[in-house]
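Worked example 4.2. Below are the chains of a multi-component assembly; read each line carefully before continuing.
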Amino acid sequence: MPSLRTLSLATVAVLIGGYALAFFYAPVDEEGFIQKIFYLHVPLAVVALLGFMVAAIHAIRHLRTNEAIHDARSYVSIHIAVIFGVGALLTGALWAKGQWGVWWEWREPTLVSFLIIFLLYATYYPLRYSIEDRDRQARYASVFAITAGAFVPLNFLAVRLAEPFIHPRTFSSAGGLPGEMLLAFLVCLAGMALLWTTLVAFELGAKGASGDLGRLRRALRPSEPAPPPPRRSVAPAGVSATSMTVDGGSKGAV
Amino acid sequence: MVPLALETSESYVAGAYLVFVALLLVYVALMAMKLARIQRELRELADIAESDRDGESPK
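Applying the procedure described above to all two chains together yields the following structure tokens:
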């Protein structure tokens, strides 16, 4: 796994390259200039959904091994994917208003299904933080991540099979995207995936550092009661910055 | 009648990209606050470690 610095530089380079291609190389289609939102909105949505599936894979590994690091990776993957989901919903609403004249269209299965997935994952936080016992919290969160993660490909399939109302299908129209637009889109998608990976590595590094601080505090002042955990962002027990660097690539991040 | 600036397609595109940048900035700001807290706690622990060492050295 590359270091956080390498990931960050690669993310910046690929995102700048992707959006330069989107604005200066890819042609403007019949939709007009507003189609440029496509290069932001679709990668955000795709990477958010992939992030949910990555979280499910980490959750499976957590349940199999009971190692806290996999729970942390699952949690952070969902956290960043939810932020990307917010971005996808907001940019989609702006595109819909410009293109269709409405902020939202309830009859369109693509929109509603994405909203359902997003709201499903929004319930992850109250579920997780309603459980005080760390082990139970991690186990229940993993079960949730696996169950919800299974919905993502099913949902994607259902939307593909459903009759589209007005939302365009990115790759299913006759002939697909023209070459220049496809190239720009793929580079933007790669940049967004890199951004997601970088943010996950960064947050895992921060969580690991928090966990190490707690351990250090207990080692220096064993008689002191453990401070109450932060309201959210709890580094799972046993997670340290050292363990994060194994494949989080976050050494030196904090 | 002069159309609102928000009603042009360029404005929607600019708005969408601004939303993305704003989301990123909010996230970075939150992480910066978290980093500041970690640095503060680390300084406190360094002070504790130094005071422990100074207390033990005369022995």
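Take a moment to check your reading of the output against the notes. Chain B touches chain A at residues 9-10, 12-13, 15-17, 19-20, 23, 27, 31, 34-35, 38, 41-42, 45, 48-49, 52 (CB under 8 Å). Chain B is about 80% helix and 0% strand.
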